[in-house]
Amino acid sequence: MNNAMFDAAVRRTATRLRQQRTADGPAANVATWNGQDVIDWIQAEFYIPEMKGAANPAMPLAPYQQAVLREAHRRDASSRFAYDLVLWSDIKKSIKSSIAAAVILFRALHTSYGSFKIVANDLKQADSRVFYYIRRALELNPALGNQAVLRNYRITLANRSVIEAIPVDPKGEAGGNDDFIEWTELHASESRAAAAMWSEMTISPTKHGYSQRWIDTYAGHSGEAPILEPLYEVAVTQGQRLTLPDAPDDLEVYANGSMLALWNTRPRLPWQTTEYYASEARALPPNEFARMHRNQWTTSEDVFVPAEWWDACRGEYPEFTPDTPVVMGMDAGVSNDCFALVGVSRIGDKVYVRFCRIWRPALGAPIDFAEPERAIRDEFVKQYNVVQIAYDPYQLHDMAMRLRRDGIVWMYEFTQMKPRLEADKALHDCIRDRRIVHSGDPTLREHVTNANSKSEGDIDKLRIVKRADHLKIDACVALSMANSEARRLQIA
Questions:
Q1: pTM (2 decimals)?
Q2: Helix (H) / strand (E) containing 144
Q3: What is the rounded distance in angstroms from the CA atom of residue 108 to the CA atom of residue 97?
Q4: What is the mean pLDDT of the chain?
Q5: CATH code given to domain 307-488
Q6: Using the 8-state DSSP alphabet, how is residue 261 labeled?
Q7: What whole-number distance in Å separates Cα of residue 269 and Cα of residue 93?
Q8: Would the pLDDT of 125 be above 80?
């Protein structure tokens, strides 16, 4: 299908849909591009797999989404956009990335020799969201796919417009002349490079009024979103709340000069059910639930687990034999912290805390590692069937090397990055689900309840941190490593 045939087919579809809408009553503030309505086009041509088999396989838009799209595309008497920055912030699972993808594809198909950029913190993120949805729509709708050539992270259309997915690289992207720049999940853009790239990728003065920056995101962590948070302050806090035609009266949409912001904080779509949110509330820390599912600014730290959760894990122990495998976790801080050893055994899906031992240095003195090392050599490995000790190498590398060299026990180095983050999240979930059993040791309880959790971006990762500098959490960290390894090793 050539360009003329394709454009004619799109115009016929748009005309048919507009006539259908006119029969129901006049549409207010319809946003058109070269005579085509962006909303009608999306609901006729932007195919999604969820609608496969339906009479119309295109993506439907809720009334509030249509209303904001019309406002975002509104033009003045000289055909210039009323807004050069659109902040589309909605709760999780509100198709905000799909909407951004549909807008980009619509605009690119109607802009000859245009430049359209999709920016994310890394190339994987850029490709996995908005760019992926564009690619998928082209695959699902042959009439669109025939107009596109895909190579790696670049789509070239028949009208010579180009859509690219790019990672944060301020030097490589400076001085562009783009028609549309889309930033996905801006809440996670925390680096200096991201801030520099945001500054570099401004709208070209030659295209001012005819190009836009578009952001799809939900809320971030207060004080940790250096690009998004100032935009929120200007567009939402200092902006004027709008009442849009055909939109719910309670819709949170704001304007401040040339900035438009949707900041929706409540479920509005059919699949956002009470049952879904009950499940999510069980799986997520409260601050992350509020941030992702209510679009509220939160802090990245929260109580690791409520004390009631930990106390509910106290229970009866099965009979252990001398051959029952034990995995130990070992953690040590610096002068004002302590040395902790926690041993566990796993039976079925439950991990049982076998012992917790703490060594505290004199006030202001460094930890003497000689005493806990003697206890490992002369007591624990003789009294228990210790199959492994997991440890943080920051303070314990030398001790671990000695124990490994002397053949005392197998040592497993637990890094502070992905393994530790996943282990801390797993411990949180195990305590929540009562898959940890303990005897009520008061020191271990103290360390667990002293802990906060710090979100690390992904919902399956968090880090155990101190709630205050003077509080001790070493036994909680040791338990996290021991629990993780006892489950990974599949020993019982």
A1: 0.67
A2: helix 142-145
A3: 16
A4: 87
A5: 3.30.420.240
A6: E
A7: 9
A8: no
